[in-house]
Structure formats: C-alpha cells, structure tokens
Amino acid sequence: MQKQYVASVLFFFLWVVSNGLYGQQKNVNIDVVKSQYIYLLTNQRDSLDAENKNEEYFILQRGKDRSQFMSLNSYKRDSVTSGLINSSVRTTLSLDLTNIPKTNFTYRIIKEPGKNKIDYYDKIIKMDFAYEESPEFKWVISNEKKNIGDLKCQAATLTYGGRNYKAWFTNDIPVSDGPYKFYGLPGLIVELEDDRNHYKFELLSYKNFADEQPLWISEKRINGKKVSKADFYKGLKNSQENLIQEMAKSGFKLDAGTEGLVKDKLKKRNNPIELIP
What we know:
Number of helices: 6
Distance between the termini: 35 Å
Radius of gyration: 19 Å
Number of strands: 12
Strand order of the largest sheet: 7-8-9-10-11-1-2-3-4-5-6-12
Order of helices and strands: HEEEHEEEEEEEEHEHHH
Mean pLDDT: 84
Strand content: 35-45%
Low-confidence stretches: 5-23, 88-95
C-alpha cells in the first residue's frame, strides 16, 4: 500500500505541475499515419534489482516522411489531458485521476531517417524541452537467423548510449524503423535487447492504414525549450536529485515518513536506457 501511495503522490505532483489546470492544449499534425506498430518493453528500472521488471506498451506510427515513437499510455494521457484541460474542470478536487493513464515514459521521439534526424521531446518537472540528434547507428549485420512468429528475422548488433544491443529485423516488413530511436536496418526491428537484459522491446502487432489519419504531437511539446542533448540530461539529473525541494516549492508538503519513501523510490530509478547520453 505504501508503494502505491508514494507512486500516486509522485504521479499527481508531476501531472499537475507539467500540465497546469488552465491552459489550452492543441495538437499539431506533422504527417499522416500510414502504418502502426505496437511494442512491449520489459525493463529493469533499478540496476541492482534483477527480480523487479516493469512492462509498458509502446506505439510506433509511421508517416510518409516521419515516424513517432512513444509510450501507448503517454499517447492516451495526452489525449485525456487535453480533454480535461479544455473542459469545465478547474480544481484538482474535481479531477478523476483514474482516467489518466500512468506511464514511466513521457517522451516523444520524431524520426526523419531521410535527413538522419531525431527530435526528442520530454518534460522536466513542469517545463517542456526538446533536443535534436543526428545519430550514427553503425549496425553490424550477422548471418544469424531465426523465426519470430511468422516473421523471418536476421540478427544485427549495435552499441549506442552506453549499451550493447542485439536486434532481430525482418525483410518481410521492408521498413527501416524500430523501437525507441533506432532505425537504419533493411527491415523492421522485431526484437531488440541490450546485453545486460535491462531493456527489451518486442513487436506484438502491426497494421497498415488505407485511410490517412493524422500523425500529431501536442503544440505544448513541440514548442518546448530547445536545448542540447547534454544540457537536457544535465537538467534531468538535477531535477531528480532535487525533486523533494521542487515539490515543496509547488505546495506539496510531505511528512518525514512519506518523504523518506519518496527518496527511496527515486534512488531506485537509476537505470535509464541511455547510460551515456
């Protein structure tokens, strides 16, 4: 019960300060969705606790020139949040937080492989930030092959962000894309895992769209402060180390016992996907 309470306190604080209660949230269409892929991420948030794994679903939407990768719950949360903020609801006491999907990953990743460009959008406490990256994915394709479901797959390896990955891609889906920031192989990445078994993405389903649905991102995100990748992760680290103080500044007072539990929970969030940003 204590763990659930602490998680709820953190979620409520981060949701309120990052979204506010009076602003308008609009969406910006950046492309049209031609195909969509659902992945399951299994990850270990605490590098010292191999028994405690988390799961979350992610969605990859591909357009004509761009693709977007994000947590499925984060995607739903933006939609729900937009509806709540633009409704007549104006007090925290009136909000039904059960309607807001919880997520451990609030980022949006917009990929433009034709330009070798990635735009990364995320929040640090109450501010939206964005940075641009042009990664050099040096894939090494091997002769190792296996079937994953009905898909014929081939192995490839890559070192990125301080982790060594093994990917299984398929030419059966000739799409040069995959989970997180990754792209550049001859086919879609069906499975990807680092050699520490801390992060594993698995493709669950995919479909093409005959009708053109908008590929969108919230205006609030896209207008976030532009910074360098190094400055973003420096700010993120600083915010995590000073979250209790930030909560106090925003009027969230915690008793000594709850504060200790929150600090303990934060210490266990020590295993980001990029160990070396």
